[in-house]
Design goal:
By secondary structure, the protein is an alpha/beta fold. It has nine helices and 14 strands. Bound molecules: zinc ion (ZN).
Length: 257
C-alpha cells in the first residue's frame, strides 16, 4: 500500500461522500453511497474507479446509490451483516471484529450500534484513517434512533478508546458548526472547544468542509465523548451519575437544542 489519497465531497443537503484511493494498485473505496450523481462526478474528476463500497448503515442517505455503483463499476459492496435485510446488494456482510482487505491494507470493522442497531465503522490502522458514519460526528454524535443511550455511549467510548489520537476521522454529515454551538452550552469552560468553535465558524464562512477531524480533537472538544469529564459533569449537576447517564443527558439536550 502506498499513501492513500482521500477525496471528500458534499452531496444531498449536508451529507459527505468520500473516495479512498491507493495510487499504486488503483484500488478505490467509496464510503457510503449517498448520491449517484455526486459520486459519479467525483469519480470523473479524480479518475479513481471504485472497486469497493463500505456501507456504515442502512439509512437511505447512505445507501441509495449502491445499485448504481455496482452497475457502473462492478464494485464489491461491504456492509453491516445485521442490517443486510435492509440494504440491497451487499456482497460482503461484516460485523464487529471482522476485517476487509483493501489495497494490501487491513480495514477493521468496529460495531457501533445506537444510531442504528447494526451500524459499523471502518478503521485503517496503518493509514490512520477512520470512517464513522452517523455514530461519531465532529463535536457531535448521531441521534439514537434504534438503540439505547447506554448502547450509543458504549459505541462512542469504544471508538475513543480504540482509535489512536492521530486518526483522521471522516463522518457522514457536515454538522460541525451546529454541533459546536451546542457543545459550548454543556461544556462552557472548555477553552479548546471555544477555540474550535471560532475555527469551524471561519471554515464554514468560506464554505469549506470541517472534516476530517482527529480523535485527539474529539477527545478534547466533543461533549458526547466527555461524559467522564469532571467540569462537564459538574456543569450538568451530575457529578455522581454513571458515564452513560451523563451522555444520555447531553444527547437529550441536543435533541431539544
Ligand atoms: Zn443515519
Amino acid at each position: 500500500m502506498s499513501e492513500l489519497a482521500v477525496h471528500l465531497f458534499p452531496c444531498l443537503t449536508d451529507n459527505y461522500g468520500v473516495l479512498v484511493h491507493d495510487p499504486e494498485s488503483g484500488e478505490t473505496a467509496v464510503v457510503d453511497a449517498p448520491d449517484e450523481a455526486a459520486i459519479k462526478r467525483a469519480v470523473a474528476e479524480t479518475g479513481w474507479t471504485p472497486t469497493q463500497v463500505w456501507v456504515t448503515h442502512h439509512h437511505w442517505d447512505h445507501t441509495q446509490a449502491i445499485p448504481a455503483l455496482k452497475d457502473a463499476y462492478g464494485a464489491t459492496v461491504v456492509g453491516p451483516r445485521q442490517e443486510a435485510a435492509m440494504i440491497v446488494d451487499l456482497d460482503l456482510k461484516v460485523g464487529d471484529g471482522d476485517s476487509v482487505q483493501f489495497a494490501g491494507a487491513t480495514v477493521r470493522v468496529i460495531g457501533t450500534p445506537g444510531h442504528t442497531l447494526g451500524q459499523v465503522a471502518y478503521w485503517l490502522p496503518d493509514a490512520a484513517l477512520a470512517f464513522t458514519g452517523d455514530t461519531l460526528f465532529a463535536m457531535g454524535c448521531g441521534r439514537v434512533f434504534e438503540g439505547t443511550p447506554e448502547m450509543m455511549w458504549t459505541s462512542l467510548d469504544r471508538l475513543a478508546a480504540t482509535l489512536p489520537a492521530e486518526t483522521r476521522i471522516y463522518c457522514g454529515h457536515e454538522y460541525t458548526l451546529a454541533n459546536a454551538k451546542f457543545a459550548v452550552t454543556v461544556d462552557p469552560d472548555n477553552a479548546a472547544l471555544a477555540e474550535r468553535l471560532e475555527a469551524v465558524a471561519a471554515i464554514r464562512a468560506q464554505g469549506k468542509p470541517t472534516l476530517p477531524t482527529t480523535m485527539a480533537e474529539e477527545r478534547l472538544t466533543n461533549p458526547f465523548l466527555r461524559a467522564g469529564d469532571e467540569a462537564l459533569r459538574a456543569h450538568l449537576g451530575m457529578a455522581d451519575a454513571a458515564d452513560w447517564e451523563v451522555f444520555a443527558e447531553v444527547r437529550r439536550r441536543k435533541d431539544h437544542f
